[in-house]
Amino acid sequence: MEKYLTKRKFSDSSEASNVDFSKHSRVEINLPDLPLDPGMRTRILDYDPNVRDEVRRAYLLKGPCQPNSHEFPYTLFGKKPRRFNVAWFNVKEYSTWLEYSVTQNAVYCLYCYLFKPYVGAQGGGDTFVSVGFENWGHKEKLNQHVGGFKSVHNQAWSKCKDLLNNKQRVDVAFAKHLTQSSIDYDIRLDASIDCIRFLLRQGLAFRGHDESETSANRGNFIELLQFLADHNQSIKDVTFNNAPLNLKLTSPDIQKDIVHAAAIETTKLIINDIGECFFSLLVDESRDISLKEQMSVVLRYVDVEGRVIERFLGIEHVPNTAAIILKETLDNLFSRHGLSISSLRGQGYDGASNMKGELGGLKTLILNENASAYYIHCFSHQLQLTLVAVAKNNSKIVSLFVLLTNVVNVVGDSCKRLDRLREQQASKVIEALGLGEIISGRGLNQETFLIKPGDTRWGSHYGTLISMITLFPSVLDVLEIITEDGATPEQKCEADMLINSLQTFDFIFSLHFMKKLLGITNELSQALQRKDQDIVNAMNLVRICKMQLQNLRDSGWDSMLTQTTLFCKKHEIEVCNMDAMFLLPGRSRRKYPKMTNLHYYRVELFYDVIDLQRTELESRFSETSTKLLLFMACLNPNNSFAAFDKNKLIQLARLYPNDFSDMDLEILNDQLETYILDMLNSSEFLNLNGFGDLAQKMVETKRDKVFSMVYLLIKFALTLPVSTATVEISFSAMKIVKNRIRNKMGDQWMNDNLVAYIEKKVFADVANQDISNMFDKMKTRRRP
Do the bridges between strand 75-77 and strand 308-317 make them parallel or antiparallel, or are there none, so unpaired? Predict the structure, then answer.
């Protein structure tokens, strides 16, 4: 045998040891993480031969990297600066293969990257594969690269088509006479897609514990497909026992591939709908059931009909919420979908402080790259939650809310204790009425209860503070009952510790202080979460809120101390001597700075927390963002365009220097005068309600073409994320899709489920045939 076969020679023993001759060996690669930028890709020949076709197919399905909205830099050629012409992307001969690398400022060929063999300098050598073409003054080089019918480029193009077209494979060509088998396959695949479509729209699980024929719990997918087969004879004839053993299209891998294909087609519709429109970015992060940090990304834009659209783009797993990590993750997501940061015209975040920080946050990183991506506080999120989170930077405020949560949990632990709390409160109300301390009347002295503070329940913290102050004596009575009648020694001990903690000046002062602080911002928080935003009034409330905080800092200390002292005396709690030395319980005097109680409560607590709130409001409602919103309010069509102000709208346009040149501003100045006269004298523009109605009516009457610059300002006003809850909806959906039972879902699997579940309306427009075609292109299938 050795006479006819040549033994393979290894250069060293390490090379021989690394060779895996097992026929089951397989190299795994994460296809979604493949770099989209052609200047950052690994050579196709450097991939393992077993995965090259998968990599090629993944890149072909993504399409060429064409960042249309990128600000292409100039390069000096001789004495003349030149840059890449974005119009080349739309040239028929180049549109399917021409790619631009943002990192290298050069263009490449997708087809040649995937299949070009080494043929020396033919077809430009490796210029369009690894080096990159950047001679912008010689467009004819692109035509030379394409070449004739037998060129290297066209041969590579032919191989790309063959790879994606399963029907053209040799084994399929030999089986063309099996027409009926092909029809059966299509029916079987279509039935599987229908079942998966139903489960995705409902957010239901797919798998069962045992999917064998004798199992009573085969999972939703198999059971639904069986139901469909029982009620449709044509499906029954080609599924389950009537299908080939290796082509039933019911395995878990097949299910995941179909879901992935559905998510790709759904996202493709969203990206196509955005097109070249400007959009705003909404980002938030949250932990899923398996305690993994997930970043939800939503885009807000105005479609061709003038409607405001918010679309869920995806969930991205992030190792931590550091701003630089979030920015890198966002860049990768944008690259995968062919989006550009330069198209951003607004950004809104809620949650982690590093996502809104002025110095190092994600907001600032994006603003450094695109100054027109203005940050606007996400109005639909309760501002109160953020202010509580900011206040918790002070350790004493953290202790306050931890203690309140413990009290609510202990007192509200059972129906029996809640009944006792109601009884105690009712008896005290009757006693107060008898003494004339309170009056009776319709709607007064209604039954109340302790409200549990929750980070996802808007207004709950303020409600907790109010209810605690109102029910304070009744809460103490219930805790005393627990110390005597508790079921276990632990319950008695816990209740006794809570009584001691509640009856301190420290707790009472923090309780009344935070109640006062959140009371100042409560009206603003309520106004900001209304759907029908009145921007002018909202900004006035922001200004008033800042003034109230400043007044509280300047002259509110004495009244706060008096209020706390009166409450303590009423409930027989020892009042703190402000001139005595402060000693934090549990700390050594040597390890804590020497200060009086007055200094601690006034400076370390009172001033410190107020300053944190003012800084937060300034960050969320900076002078620039406030001006931006007030200027945009001048476009409001309510009350016959009563808010219209041409000068402010010109100032608004100046905030977008990349979209309005000096010449455009002159044109806009004249256009605004004609625009307002037309609006006031056109009956169809009377009785409009908000920017949304105005934009849609302008598109309907073709005024968006006549007053194109004014319409652009209206689109910017609509694009800014002043009122949205889509990000929070995505987290609610995540808890439905990835629940306790499905806590081991992978990131890509969860993302695919969420895209189809959240964007149900878009998913409904995706045809089964499109999903089927994408499913066939994703892998080499045994399609008859």
Answer: unpaired
Neighbours of 469 (CB within 10 A): 13
3-class state of residue 770 by DSSP: helix
Distances (CA, A) of 712 to 311, 652, 664: 21, 11, 12
Among the listed residues 149, 108, 45, the one whose alpha carbon sits nearest the alpha carbon of residue 157: 149
Q: Which residues of 209-228 are buried (b: 16+ CB within 10 A; e: fewer)?
A: eebeeeeeebbbbbebbbeb
Q: Bridge partners of 285? A: 295
Q: Quick one: tokens of 131?
A: 């080096």
Element holding 637 (H helix, E strand): none
Pairing of the two strands 279-287 and 308-317: unpaired
The alpha carbon torsion through 99, 100, 101, 107 (nearest 10 deg) reads 80
For every residue of 154-190, which 3-state class applies, written as one string?
HHHHHHHHHHHCHHHCHHHHCCCCCHHHHHHHHHHHH
Give the pairing of strands 308-317 and 293-302.
Answer: antiparallel
**Distance linking the first and last C-alpha atoms of the chain:** 39
Distance CA 601, CA 274 (A): 54
User: For 475-532, how does the pLDDT look when each residue is reduced to its tens digit (9 = 90+)?
Assistant: 888 888 888 877 788 888 988 899 899 999 999 999 999 899 888 877 766 666 554 4
Which amino acid appears at position 529 of this protein? Q
CA distance 193 to 225: 10
Phi, psi for 775 (deg, rounded to 5)? -60, -45
* Alpha helix positions (H), 23-116: 52-62, 110-115
Task: Return the amino acid letter for 587.
Answer: R
- The Cα 153–Cα 159 span in angstroms is 10
The pairing of beta strand 98-101 with beta strand 106-109:
antiparallel
- The Cα–Cα gap between 379 and 721 comes to 8
What's the rounded Cα separation, in Å, for the pair 780 and 51? 12
Amino acid at 427: S
What residue has token string 């020497």? Answer: 594
Give the total residue count for the chain. Answer: 784
The amino acid present at 98, given as its one-letter code, is L
With contact defined as beta carbons under 8 Å apart, do 242 and 258 qualify? no
Q: Are 629 and 376 within 8 A, CB to CB?
A: yes
Q: Exposed/middle/buried for 545, CB within 10 Å: 0-12, 13-18, 19+?
A: buried
CA 84 to chain centre: 32
Q: Find the helix packing angle between 747-758 and 726-737, rounded to 10°.
A: 120
pLDDT at 607: 93
Residues of the chain below pLDDT 50: 1-25, 121-123, 170, 172-177, 351-360, 380, 382, 430, 432-447, 456-458, 531-532
